[in-house]
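Entry, Tuesday afternoon. Goal for today is a structural model of the target with zinc ion bound, before we commit to ordering more compound. Inputs were pasted exactly as handed over by J.K., no edits. I checked the ligand SMILES twice against the vendor sheet because last time a stereocentre got dropped in transcription.
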Amino acid sequence: MVVIKSYDRIECADGFIRVKTNEKCCCSVCGGFLYVRDSKPRKVINQAGITEIYCLRRLRCQRCRKLHTEIPDCIVPYKHYTAEVIEAEISQKREDCPADNNTSWRWKSFFASILILAHKHNFFSSQSHWISKAYQIVEKFKLLTHPVCVPFESIRCYNSE
Ligand SMILES: [Zn+2]
C-alpha cells in the first residue's frame, strides 16, 4: 500500500468516490516506479455512520512487480471506519462514535502503540489524519505485532450471509 496525503476527493455520478492526486509515489519495497494497473472498491464508514464506497487505484511496481493500493490518508489500512472516526474515538474528542463499544475497545487496544508513536513524532500537531501515516510507519518497520488483519472483502461476505 501507499498512503497519499495530498488529493482531491471527487464524488462521481456512479456512486463511487474517486481520489485524484499529483503525488508521485514509489514502491515501498524497492523504490521502483509505480504504474496504474486497475482500481478496486473500498467501503468506509464515516462519522455520520454512512458507508461510502471509494474507488482506489492499484499500482504495480515496474521493478519488483508488487501490487500497492493507493490509499488516501482519510482511510486507515484494514479498518472499516474513516481515520476521522478512529482518531476522534481513541483521543476521546467526540461522544457520537458510529462504531459499537467492542469495536471502540479494539481500536484503543490496537492503536495504543501507534498512539505512543504519534506522540513521539508529534503527528497530532503536524498533520491531519495522522493515524494513517503512523500506521504506515509501524507496518514498514514491523514495530507492532497485531492480530491478523481481515481484508474488508471478507467482512462484507460475512455480513451478507
Ligand atoms: Zn518494487
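The pocket of zinc ion is lined by residues 27, 29-30, 32, 61, 63-64, 66 (CB under 6 Å).
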